[in-house]
Design a protein that fits this description.
253 residues; alpha/beta; 15% strand; Rossmann fold
Length: 253
C-alpha cells in the first residue's frame, strides 16, 4: 500500500472485469476510495470484494454509459458514498460486429459507437459537471492503439469509435483545463485479456503470435495499463493535458 491517492475518490466504469477491475484495484491499493460501475451487479460485487480483501474501500453502482440519467445518478451516488469525485476513468467499451465495413450491420455499428463514443462523452459530461463546480479533477479515457494510431481490417466500427475517443479526449482537455479539469487518454495495444484473443485462440497461441506480431514480443499486462492510468491521474502528471499515451509495445512506433 502507498498513499498517492489517499483521500481521493475514484470512479471507474466497465470495472466488473479485465482492465477496469485491474485499474480499480490499483487505485484502491494506493489509498483511494473507488466506485466501480457497469451494467451487471454480480461482477462489480466481485471487484469490490477483491478491493476490500486487500484492505481498500470500494462500492459498486450499476450504470449504463449510454443512458444520461443513469450516469447522472452514478456521479451523484459516488459523491454520496465517498464525499466527492476527484478522478474518473472511462473504461467501458465493446467490440461488436466484425467484418468489412460494407458488411457491418447498422445495429452493430450503432451499438459500438453508442458505448465507446457516446458513452465516453456522456460519462465525461456528468463527471465534468461535478468537477468544474468542486475544485476540478482528473479524467482518463481508455482509447486504443487501433484508431488514431493504427487500423486493422474487419474492425472498422471499433477502430472508428476509438479514434473518436482520442479526438474527443483532446478536445475536451482544451475545453476544460481552464476550469481545473485535466483530461487525458491511454491507448493500449493488445493486453492480457479475452479481447485480444482471436476466435478459438488460446493464451498460448496468442503468446506465440505476439512473438512475431508485436515488437516487444508479448501482450501488455493489466498492471502496466493500470500504472499508466494512475500516472495520468496523479499530481505527478499535472502538466499532461490532452495526452494520448500509447501503450502497445512498439506496435505503432
Amino acid at each position: 500500500m502507498t498513499a498517492r491517492f489517499t483521500a481521493k475518490t475514484v470512479l471507474v466504469t466497465g470495472a466488473g472485469q479485465g482492465a477496469g477491475r485491474a485499474i480499480a484495484l490499483a487505485f484502491a491499493r494506493e489509498g483511494a476510495a473507488v466506485v466501480v460501475a457497469g451494467r451487471s451487479a454480480a461482477p462489480l460485487a466481485e471487484t469490490v470484494a477483491l478491493i476490500e480483501a486487500e484492505g481498500g474501500r470500494g462500492a459498486a453502482v450499476t450504470a449504463d454509459v449510454t443512458d444520461s440519467a443513469s450516469l447522472a445518478t452514478l456521479v451523484a451516488r459516488t459523491v454520496e458514498l465517498f464525499g466527492g469525485l476527484d478522478i474518473a476513468v472511462n473504461n467501458a467499451g465493446v467490440i461488436q460486429g466484425t467484418g468489412p465495413i460494407g458488411d457491418l450491420t447498422e445495429e452493430d455499428w450503432r451499438a459500438t459507437l453508442d458505448v465507446n463514443v457516446t458513452g465516453t462523452w456522456l460519462s465525461m459530461k456528468h463527471e465534468i459537471a461535478y468537477m468544474r463546480a468542486n475544485s476540478g479533477g482528473a479524467i482518463v479515457n481508455i482509447a486504443s492503439n487501433l484508431g488514431a494510431h493504427a487500423r486493422l481490417a474487419n474492425l472498422g466500427a471499433y477502430v472508428t469509435s476509438k479514434a473518436a475517443v482520442s479526438a474527443l479526449t483532446r478536445n475536451a482537455a482544451l475545453d476544460h483545463i481552464g476550469e481545473g479539469v485535466r483530461i487525458n487518454a491511454v491507448s493500449p495495444g493488445p493486453l492480457a485479456t479475452t479481447m485480444s484473443l482471436r476466435p478459438g485462440e488460446t493464451e498460448a497461441d496468442r503468446a506465440d503470435r505476439m512473438k512475431t506480431q508485436n515488437p516487444s514480443g508479448r501482450v501488455g499486462t493489466l498492471s502496466e495499463l493500470a500504472a499508466a492510468v494512475l500516472y495520468l491521474a496523479s499530481d505527478e502528471a499535472a502538466f499532461a493535458v490532452g495526452t494520448d499515451l500509447v501503450l502497445d509495445g512498439g506496435a505503432t512506433a
